[in-house]
Design goal:
about 600 residues; single chain; 14 strands; 2 domains
Length: about 600
C-alpha cells in the first residue's frame, strides 16, 4: 500500500511536481502535465500521451526524445481533463499538428476527444488514437472495446519515432494504427492495489489463487486459477497470446516480436527475470524471434502484485521504430546525438511562453462576467445546491466505492468526492467575485472535470455546464429554464458518452429524471415540487439498474457480477437529486 503521502487528494499533483523537479534534463512542467525540456522542432508532429496517475512510468516518465513530446496526467486512476490535455498539447505543438494517444478507457476517450475539438478550434490540427491491447477485456470480434495496458509503450514509441522522422500527422497516425493492430497483452495478479489514503485494496485475491485478465485500475480479473509456479505463469501468458495472432500473421514460427514482461508494482525484478527465462524459451520453441525485449516496470498499478506480457508482432518498419533510440526519464534505449544549442534556447522561450499563457489564464479565471442582481441571487442557491452535492457525496463515498468495486475498479466514490469538492470550491470563489448563476456553474463544471477526471468527471462537467448555459447570468432562472437545462444536460451526456437507457449507466437515471422534471414544470408546478417528484423518479430508476447488465464502461467485462447491484453512477446521481431538493427547500 502507499504509505508516504500528505493529503490523498493532493497526491497526484504533488507526485507530478516532484517528478518534474527530479527530471529537469528531460521535462518541464506545464499546466496539466509535462512536455519535453526542449521545444518540439518547428514542423514536427507532437505526440502527446496521457492517462491517470498511479501507473508510473506511464505516462510522464515516457516524455523525451524518441518517445512522447508531452504527457497529460490526471488524478489517481482517472483520465486528465480536456482542459489539461489541451494545455499540454498547446505547449508541445510544433506547428505540424498533435497526435493524442491514450489507453482505451471511456474517460480518456471522452476527454481526449474533447481536447482535440478544442485544439481544432484553436487552429491546431489534432488526431486521437486509443491503444486497445488487452485481450482479456473483449473478444477478437470486439477488439475496439479492449483496454489499453502495457501495449501503450510500443505503440506510443512507434508513433513518436515516426513523428521525429518528419512524417506528417496523417502518416504518424497510420503508424500508430499499424502498431496498435499488431500489439496484444495479457496479465495476471496475486493481490490488488491500495490507493493513497485507503485502508483496503480495490480488490482481493484468495490465498493461493491468482486473478486472470485483470485491469490496471483495480478492475477484477475475468477469472481465478490456482497460484502457479513462475514457469506455469509464463506458459499461461505465452500460450494465451499465441492463441490470438493479428490477422496478417498466419503462424508464430518465423515471426519477429517486441516482447515486454511488465511488473505491475510489487513483483520484484528478480521474479520477473525468473518468469522471463521461461517466456523466452517458450517463444523460441514457437519459432518467434525476440527483438529488444523489455523486462521491468513500464505500466504499473501502485502496489498491485502482478505481471503482464505484451507482444508486438513486427514487420520491417515496426522493427525499425522499436529499435530506434530513446531518452526519457524512465525509458532509454541506444544513443542519441546531443541536442542542438538552439533547441535549448527554444525550450527557454517556449517555457516563458507557456508560463505567460498560464498566468494569463489564471488572471482571467479570477474575473467574472457581469451579472444581473437576480442572477447573482440565484447563484447563492446554486452554491447551496453544490454544497449539498459535495456533502452527500462525501457521506456516501465509501458506499459508492463498494458498489463500483463489484464489477469495476472501485474508485467511483473517490472520483465523485474529488470532483464535487473542487466544484464547490470553484463555485464559492466565483460567487464571492459576484458571478451570476451561469458563471458559477461553468466554473464548477471545469473544476469538477479537472479534479475528478475519468468518465464521471467529463459527464458531470457536461451536466453543470449545460445547466449554466441554460441559466445564464442575466435572466431569472425560473422552473422551466431549470428543466430545460436538465433536459439539455441529458441530451449532452448521451451525445458525449454514447450510452442510452438500458446500458446500466447514469443515463438510466438522468433521462427519466429530466423527463419527469420537464413534465412537472409543464404542469405549472413550482421548482421545489417539480424537483421533488423528479427526484423520486430518479431514486426508483437507480434501484432498477440492479436488474440490468452493463453494456458500456469498465464493468462490461464483468457483467454477470454486477447483476443485483445498482450502477454506482446511477446511484450517486439519485442521491444528488434528493440532496439538491433539500437545498432548494432551504432557499425557497
Amino acid at each position: 500500500m502507499t504509505r508516504l503521502f500528505n493529503d490523498p487528494a493532493a497526491f497526484a499533483d504533488e507526485a507530478l511536481e516532484g517528478f518534474a523537479a527530479a527530471h529537469r534534463r528531460w521535462v518541464r512542467p506545464v499546466t496539466g502535465g509535462v512536455v519535453r525540456a526542449a521545444a518540439t522542432p518547428a514542423g514536427q508532429v507532437a505526440v502527446v500521451v496521457g492517462g491517470g496517475s498511479g501507473h508510473y512510468p506511464a505516462f510522464s516518465g515516457l516524455v523525451g526524445r524518441g518517445l512522447a513530446h508531452g504527457a497529460a496526467v490526471g488524478n489517481v486512476f482517472a483520465s486528465p481533463s480536456a482542459r489539461q490535455i489541451h494545455s499540454v498539447a498547446r505547449a508541445a505543438d510544433g506547428g505540424a499538428g498533435v497526435l493524442l494517444m491514450y489507453g482505451n478507457y471511456a474517460g480518456d476517450v471522452l476527454h481526449f476527444g474533447q481536447a482535440a475539438e478544442r485544439l481544432a478550434a484553436d487552429g491546431i490540427e489534432a488526431r486521437t488514437f486509443a491503444v486497445a491491447d488487452d485481450i482479456s477485456s473483449a473478444g477478437p470480434d470486439e477488439s475496439a472495446k479492449r483496454r489499453g495496458i502495457a501495449g501503450d509503450l510500443p505503440v506510443f514509441k512507434a508513433a513518436a519515432v515516426a513523428a521525429e522522422q518528419g512524417l506528417p500527422l496523417g502518416e504518424v497516425l497510420r503508424v500508430a494504427e499499424r502498431a496498435g493492430a499488431r500489439t496484444r497483452s495479457f496479465g495476471i495478479a496475486f493481490s490488488g492495489c491500495t490507493l493513497p489514503g485507503a485502508d483496503h485494496p480495490l480488490f482481493t485475491v484468495p490465498e493461493a489463487r491468482m486473478a486472470v485478465g485483470l485491469g490496471i485500475h483495480g478492475e477484477p480479473g475475468i477469472g481465478e486459477e490456482a497460484l502457479p509456479t513462475a514457469d506455469e505463469a509464463a506458459r499461461l501468458l505465452v500460450e494465451t497470446l499465441l492463441e490470438e495472432l493479428p490477422e496478417d500473421v498466419a503462424a508464430p514460427a518465423g515471426q519477429r516480436a517486441a516482447v515486454i514482461l511488465n511488473g505491475l508494482g510489487s513483483v520484484k525484478y528478480e521474479e520477473l527475470f525468473v518468469v522471463y527465462r521461461e517466456v523466452a524459451a517458450l517463444l523460441g520453441e514457437a519459432g518467434v524471434e525476440i527483438v529488444d525485449p523489455e523486462v521491468g516496470e513500464l505500466v504499473t498499478s501502485f502496489d498491485m502484485a502482478g505481471v503482464s506480457l505484451t507482444l508486438t508482432w513486427l514487420d520491417d518498419r515496426l522493427e525499425e521504430l522499436w529499435r530506434a533510440p530513446a531518452d526519457t526519464p524512465a525509458y532509454r534505449k541506444g544513443a542519441l546525438a546531443a541536442p542542438e544549442p538552439d533547441q535549448d534556447r527554444a525550450a527557454s522561450t517556449a517555457g516563458a511562453r507557456d508560463t505567460a499563457a498560464s498566468d494569463a489564464a489564471a488572471s482571467g479565471a479570477t474575473a467574472v462576467p457581469p451579472a444581473s442582481d437576480a442572477s447573482r441571487e440565484a447563484a447563492a442557491t446554486v452554491l447551496a445546491a453544490l454544497d449539498a452535492v459535495a456533502r452527500v457525496v462525501d457521506t456516501h463515498a465509501d458506499e459508492l466505492g463498494r458498489i463500483d468495486a463489484v464489477a469495476g475498479d472501485g474508485d467511483h466514490g473517490i472520483g465523485m468526492r474529488r470532483g464535487s469538492t473542487a466544484a464547490r470550491r470553484a463555485a464559492t470563489d466565483a460567487h464571492g467575485l459576484g458571478g451570476g448563476a451561469g458563471t458559477v456553474l461553468a466554473r464548477a463544471a471545469d473544476a469538477w472535470a479537472d479534479k475528478a477526471g475519468g468518465t464521471s468527471g467529463a459527464l458531470w462537467g457536461t451536466i453543470l455546464r449545460s445547466l449554466g448555459t441554460a441559466l445564464g447570468d442575466r435572466d431569472v432562472p425560473d422552473a422551466r429554464r431549470v428543466a430545460d437545462g436538465v433536459t439539455e444536460a441529458s441530451a449532452a451526456v448521451r451525445r458525449l458518452g454514447g450510452a442510452e437507457v438500458g446500458d446500466k449507466t447514469m443515463v438510466d437515471v438522468l433521462v427519466p429524471f429530466a423527463d419527469a422534471l420537464a413534465a412537472a414544470t409543464a404542469e405549472g408546478l413550482p421548482l421545489t415540487d417539480a424537483w421533488d417528484r423528479a427526484a423520486g423518479t430518479a431514486t426508483a430508476a437507480a434501484a432498477a439498474t440492479a436488474g440490468l447488465l452493463p453494456r458500456r464502461g469498465r464493468a462490461r467485462p464483468h457483467a454477470e457480477k454486477s447483476l443485483g447491484t445498482p450502477d454506482a453512477g446511477a446511484h450517486s446521481l439519485a442521491l444528488i437529486t434528493r440532496a439538491v431538493h433539500g437545498a432548494l427547500l432551504d432557499h425557497h
